[in-house]
Amino acid sequence: MEHLYLSMEIGGTNLRYGVLDGTFRVLDFKKEPSRRLSDAVDKGEYIEGLVRPYIERYGKENFLCMALSLASLMNRERTVNYNSPNIKGFNNISLVDILTERTGLPVYMERDVNTALLYEIWKGHIDTRGIIIGIFIGTGLGNSMCIDGKIYIGNTGSACELGHIPVLGFTDSCGCGKNGCIELKASGRTLHLLAEEKYHCPVSEIFERYGEEKDVKDVVHACAIAAATEITILDPGCVVLGGGVVDMKGFPMEYFEQTVKENLRIPYPRDSVRFIRALGDPESGITGAAINAAARMGQRV
Ligand SMILES: [Zn+2]
Question: Which terms in the Gene Ontology molecular function aspect does this entry carry (predicted)?
Fold first, then answer.
């Protein structure tokens, strides 16, 4: 037995999948648009079709499990996928049961923000004592928390919804079903709207070309306020910062850090807070999923 991991990341835009060995080295890696999964009538059949060649090539007996990373809310037991953006017919689906039956392997599923943080901790050899938080500014405002090496998922499995903390006096309605969520001001979605409707430029260029405009800065400011709120409560050892918006050219990292600090108590955590830029490698999702699966199976990570 070779202790391999069959791993898949199901995102709103791309589906990435492959095979990793027992040390989380990627042996095989593929990417395709999530649209195809969205169009597939039988999701289980479609996913099995993608990974079946790997199971046959490497031999089923050499796989420890199948690991999944999903941009989705899920139940505490991590068996039911509640809803995934951009993928039709993928809501309230018992994905773990379906894929266990189809692959014959144990299946371990986790949220993408959590597998992303696990990857960054592993890759960056970050000391896992105490609290590490991950803030991922992408389409939404993603958040993850690792306490003494363990991802914190909360009582019902829905912890760390930082994007949906309420903003006093703000009443716009959010896609989550309630009003006044900070994500409406603090996310890539907001930048996208500005780029499209006001500045008429590709969103990827908005910081380079319009980074000094107040409404563009306001988005970064709102992200910093959300981060400062969490840091104030938790006093974490470090903050891993990543996501598509942070990776954009011209993202004002200095302004972000300064705004976070201005909103933290003196002297601590203002003087002690430490930011680490996420690497955000293409294989981070499938690797983080495998690391999570290994921990769930009691393997040494
Ligand atoms: Zn919301």
Answer: D-allose kinase activity
Model pLDDT, residue 254: 97
Residue 63 CA, ligand 1 centroid: distance in Å: 39
Distance 162 CA to ligand 1 centre (A): 9
**Helix 253-262 and helix 214-234: axis angle, to 10°?**
50
- The highest-level CATH class for domain 4-114+282-296 is alpha beta
Q: What is the mean pLDDT of the chain?
A: 96
Angle subtended by helix axes 112-123 and 284-296, to nearest 10: 90
208 is written with which tokens?
Answer: 């380079």
Tell me how far the alpha carbon of residue 143 lies from the centroid of ligand 1, in angstroms. Answer: 13
Q: How confident is the model at residue 300 (pLDDT cuts 50, 70, 90)?
A: low
Q: Where are the domains of the chain?
A: 4-114+282-296, 127-277
CATH of domain 127-277: 3.30.420.40
How many Å lie between the centroid of ligand 1 and the Cα of residue 285? 24
Ligand 1 center from residue 11 Cα (angstroms): 19
pLDDT tier for residue 299 given thresholds of 50, 70 and 90: confident
Quick check: do 4-114+282-296 and 127-277 share a fold? yes
